[in-house]
Description:
Blueprint: E1 2-3, H1 10-19, E2 30-33, E3 36-39, E4 46-49, E5 53-56, E6 63-64, E7 68-71, E8 83-84, E9 89-94, H2 101-112
Parallel strand pairs: 1-7, 7-9
Antiparallel strand pairs: 2-3, 3-6, 4-5, 8-9
Helix pairs in contact: 1-2
Amino acid sequence: MLVGPAGVGKSDLVLRLLDRGFVLVADDRVEIADGVARPAEGLAGLLEVRGLGIVRLPHVAPVRLALAVELGMQGERLPAPARWQYADLPLLRLDGARPSAAGVVALALDCATGRVGQVAGAFA
Length: 124
């Protein structure tokens, strides 16, 4: 789940995550109930791409959430564990414009789901 203010680069990061094999649920708005996300009516698979417009992409829904990523801040070098208040998810704070942002999100998801162990930081 990518969150942050308008213009912070959420859709740009989504494009980079799609290149890594991630799949879109929806852009702009999802409905969350019991840790499961669904697109708001009429938004399934839609993504607004700056400079191009709105496109319809393959999507999945519903999907169980495992990680929230808050964009728009640098993030700490060795952050303390944090939770996203809206769905009690592990929270990663990240500058989405960093070239490594998609890789960091992929690795954070692996850490949050227990596929990769973490010695110290956001999920330890």
